[in-house]
Amino acid sequence: MSELTYQSGFGNEHASEAVPGSLPLGRNSPQKVAHGLYAELLSGTAFTAPRAENLRSWMYRRQPSVVVGAYQPLAQPWLKTGAREGAAAVPPDPLRWAPLALPAEADGADAAQDFIEGLRTYAVNGDPDAQTGMAAHMYLANRSMERRAFVNADGELLIVPQQGRLRITTELGLLDVKPGEIALIPRGLAFKVALPDGPARGYVCENYGAALRLPELGPIGSNGLANPRDFLAPVAAYEDTPGAYEIVKKFGGRLWTAQQGHTPFNVVAWHGNLAPYKYDTAHFMTIGSISFDHPDPSIFTVLTSPSDTPGWANVDFVIFPPRWMVAEDTFRPPWYHRNVMSEFMGLVLGQYDAKPEGFKPGGASLHNAMVPHGPDTEAFAKASAAELKPHKLDHTLAFMFETRWRLLPTEFALKDSGALETHYADCWRDLQDQFKTP
Ligand SMILES: O=C(O)Cc1cc(O)ccc1O
Ligand SMILES: [Fe+2]
């Protein structure tokens, strides 16, 4: 597959045309758009949102997206939305899941499922109608979406591939995304997912709240963490093959399907600051302790969706990338803690220092508000005895969706998946009372 080209810079006023002369100059909606195209606006914030937060893009397309048939309900029993679809009683235990098998390995080739069919919701909070909260899903896909597009009116999607590359076609152009990279699909933008390497597995944060953005840097200054220029938006590209298309829409927590006679990927030119992005976490400029103590994980925030209370994120996307550990006289892994925020974690590759053996790539864990957790017995013993020379945590990538609201696991996560580890809490059971009365 040929290398794609991109436009760089998070939130830039991007501009791109697949056919020269398609973008209007000096206005957005001329009486007649060049080449017989239609102008269509997609807004990501209220029209009157403050300028610094305002998101919208203009598309110039062969037919506007209003040209679509009537929608019918579409069953997808594993996809859940908002707190009302979580478990009624959430145990206050730490929870962890083994990786789910990829569909081809588990069920043979007939059990083909695409990105939409392969979504499995693990945990939910909030309510898309109140524009708060999130869902943590996994996807397990072994079939490319061909003449089928997905539009999520409930939230934006942050996709974290764990295995297998994705070619994501969007209305605004193409993104190639591999494990170690992430993709961000704005609320309401049509996209489809193809699997150039075959079966793919990964994590999705569906964000019902304010759009994810780069965090403030405070005393860090004007550079560091995820730098804006490393986010890549697509260039305009359109499909030219005639024929029908299915549009699957997530709208109010349910899926709906409609047919139309043409591709929705018919945008010849676009401009604006609402765009899908990909980002390679290898570009994350990680900051850590160069003196002593283990800092709060907020230093690893890639993107944040603020809530209405400053500092209490609707959701933070936090990564634990390869990094040097150099702190002196310090217990270097995470401390034992109870967090008022809720932590859903995944592992893309390698080992996570708080659970070197027990947490597997493709697995997941949930440490809800005030649920105690921290290094397992083995990690505690190793880190307490380690010689504190500089040490590189390498070949590793864990991440966390950290949210202000308690995450309710689904029935699938608790029962049907069969992946919930029944004895997870045993990993701390052997932490003995070592107190010696002086
Ligand atoms: O619990 C976890 O593994 C995530 C985490 C990591 C860290 O370095 C500090 C706090 C925290 O919640
Ligand atoms: Fe934690």
TrEMBL record:
One cellular component term (GO) for this entry is:
cytoplasm
Where do Polar residues bias regions lie?
A: 1-10
Q: What is this protein called?
A: Homogentisate 1,2-dioxygenase
InterPro entries xref list? HgmA_C, HgmA_N, Homogentis_dOase, RmlC-like_jellyroll, RmlC_Cupin_sf
The UniProt annotation places Fe cation binding at: H337, E343, H373
Q: Member of which family? A: Belongs to the homogentisate dioxygenase family.
| Origin superkingdom | Bacteria
Q: What class of enzyme is it?
A: oxidoreductase
What CDD domains does the database record attribute to this sequence?
cupin_HGO_N
- Positions of region (Disordered): 1-26
